[in-house]
Design goal:
CATH topology of the largest domain: Quinone Oxidoreductase, Chain A, domain 1
Order of helices and strands: EEEHEEEEEHHEHEHEEHEEHEHE
Helix content: 10-25%
Structural class: alpha/beta
Number of domains: 2
Distance between the termini: 12 Å
Strand content: 25-35%
Shape: globular
Largest sheet: 7 strands, mixed
Number of strands: 16
């Protein structure tokens, strides 16, 4: 089968499509025939060597949408042909979801949304679970205020929607041309990138990874949640600093799927590429201002 790999670190030119063996599911696992897979910033980071793995052939891809192709021993509830989405956690792995087949733990899989196609469904797992976990870690009560940085991005846009559903009063920080977009996602307020909110907020969800600059917007005793593990700013003024790390969680993913099917969570796809054009997808990934997930598809 075809799979996207890197065998040396660098730019998009390091991405290639290799022929590898079709993986076999072990006990507790399912094999998925991949139809679409999101290309995330973390894939670019793996390609660039941020997570190490020098000398190895590394597979790329965390998100997957497709159909169950085979099930391992002891798996219940999943049958061949069932449309699913899932998250393949981990930056350093021999095979990712950018392939024609991938094996995941059954616990990492959820039924795919029925209201969107595979490309849109593939934009949900990593970004959706990241945003949902970050909103939960805020620990804020309905009516509290939150500033979401990078609100026009994929994770930030989902975080805006989920924070609004949690009853929070959301101010979105994004580019000058993004006000209409973030307000359509539910943001009550808008701050142009480089600007300052009118007053301190109860919490910041820092999807843009601004760090200390975003911490300055939080009231004394408030909360800051970052999206990059072990990279958060030092706590000051009694602010609780949290760093979320996503996990493969099929049950949580199922709840997000239900929001998509209810029309309460919007998924955005910027562009799609055939698996053979994975290097071009990585070039697009690096273009500033991309609004939506870049997705690879298989025939």
């Amino acid at each position: 089968m075809r799979a996207v790999v890197v065998e040396g670190f660098g730019g998009p030119e390091r991405v290639r499509v290799a022929e590898v063996e079709v993986p076999r599911p072990e006990a507790g696992q399912v094999r998925i025939r991949v139809r679409a897979a999101g290309v995330n910033p973390v894939d670019g980071a793996v390609r660039a060597g941020v997570f190490g793995g020098a000398g190895q052939r590394l597979g790329l891809g965390w998100d997957v949408a497709g159909e169950v192709d085979a099930v391992g021993a002891g798996v219940e509830g999943w049958t061949v042909g069932r449309r699913v989405v899932g998250l393949h956690y981990g930056p350093v792995k021999p095979l990712g979801t950018h392939a024609e087949y991938v094996v995941l733990d059954a616990s990492a899989v959820a039924a795919a949304p029925v209201t969107v196609d595979d490309a849109a469904a593939a934009a949900l797992p990593l970004s959706g679970l990241t945003a949902a976990r970050a909103v939960e870690q805020l620990g804020l009560a309905p009516g509290d205020s939150v500033l979401v940085t990078g609100a026009a991005g994929v994770v930030g846009g989902l975080a805006v929607q989920l924070a609004v559903r949690a009853g929070l009063v959301v101010t979105a920080l994004a580019g000058a041309g993004d006000e209409g977009l973030v307000r359509s996602l539910g943001a009550a307020g808008f701050v142009e990138r480089g600007g300052v909110p009118a007053g301190p907020v109860d919490g910041v969800l820092d999807a843009a990874v601004l760090g200390e600059a975003a911490l300055a917007f939080v009231r004394d005793g408030g909360v800051y949640v970052g999206l990059r593990p072990h990279a958060g700013p030092a706590a000051v003024r009694g602010i609780r600093v949290e760093e979320q790390e996503v996990a493969a969680d099929g049950a949580h993913l199922e709840r997000l799927v239900s929001l998509v099917d209810a029309g309460l969570l919007t998924l955005r796809v910027a562009d799609t590429f055939d698996l053979a054009d994975a290097a071009k997808a990585h070039e697009t990934l690096s273009v500033p201002g991309t609004r939506g997930r870049v997705v690879l598809t298989t025939a």
